[in-house]
Amino acid sequence: MGDSSDEEYLGTDWLPYSARSEWADVEPLAQDDGTNPVVSIAYSQMFREVFDYMRAVIARGEKSQRALDLTTDALRLNPANYTVWQYRRDILRELKADLNAELDYLSEVIGQNAKNYQVWHHRRVIVEMLNDPSNELELTENALVNDGDAKNYHAWQHRQWAIRTFNLYDDELNFVDRLISEDQRNNSAWNQRFFVIKHFGFSPDLIQRELTYTMNRIRIIKNNESAWNYLVGVMRQGGKGQGLSSYPEVVAFVEEIYQAGNRSPYLLAFLVDLYQEQALNQKVSQSDQLARKVYGLCEELSTKHDVIRRKYWQYVATHLKNQLSKAAEQQQEQQH
């Protein structure tokens, strides 16, 4: 880490620690790479000096304001350094520092390092110490919306943690709906919707509402994997024994889309699952027509609409044939 760009972080007027009188009592501790390192990293002089003093401070166990300021310099140069973040937390506890000021500092760091796990982890610890999540939804919204990265995993993870830990579910569906409206293929937003709905519990009324919501979204963009996955996910939550066939309005909806000529691979995959389920739940003598539908859909998928997964769809068709064959054999044995 560290190169000529270090001055951009600490400033061209940065004064080396070795030239600061208040640090005269500290002997910097150089990094020990051994006598013959396989790869010698070309650290800048600024980077080397900051971390030499950082190692010295940690070695002597010093927890002071100057040590806290040193961690700030070190983390500007390498914001992914776990050891420095951990030591910074130790210093904050020792000094009984202003943790709200630390949150302000972290907002700045996250703005520049929104995909850095260590920064988000440190933020979580500080929020826990304060027992105050009042800034977290706004912070993550800025990371996801204003910074233009609506799929930032770390921001979503932190948002879910804050919502779950401090029971902040109430307005989350409105936020998620806004993101989905802006980008209906935002899988992260659909996942967040499922996270919220799961908390409230999958009552029949809620399931019906979500199915209607999702079908309306699919009507707008039919080739949307995120919406199809969500649709199936909600349908599977209807309780033990509930299958895709348990929601006739959805069955009618997808068959209507298919009859209208749409051949989205996600639509076809849904129909494969639906007709497989129906074929296996009926008497063998009545399953032949449904099985033929599955074989035809698998053929369409493997040769036209989802060729990259050709072997998978061939396997699905073969597996259903084997299942139905076994069921027929068992029925014959029972008759004899």
TrEMBL record:
Gene: Fnta
Protein name: Protein farnesyltransferase/geranylgeranyltransferase type-1 subunit alpha
GO cellular component terms listed in the entry, alphabetical order: CAAX-protein geranylgeranyltransferase complex; protein farnesyltransferase complex
Lineage, highest ranks first: Eukaryota, Metazoa, Ecdysozoa, Arthropoda, Hexapoda
One Pfam family of this chain: PPTA
Keywords: Magnesium, Prenyltransferase, Repeat, Transferase
Domain of life: Eukaryota
Cofactor(s) needed for function: Mg(2+)
MF-aspect GO terms: CAAX-protein geranylgeranyltransferase activity; protein farnesyltransferase activity
Organism annotation: Drosophila kikkawai
Family listed: Belongs to the protein prenyltransferase subunit alpha family.
EC number, as in UniProt: 2.5.1.58, 2.5.1.59
Entries under SUPFAM superfamilies matching the protein: Protein prenylyltransferase
InterPro entries listed in its UniProt record: Prenyl_trans_a (IPR002088)
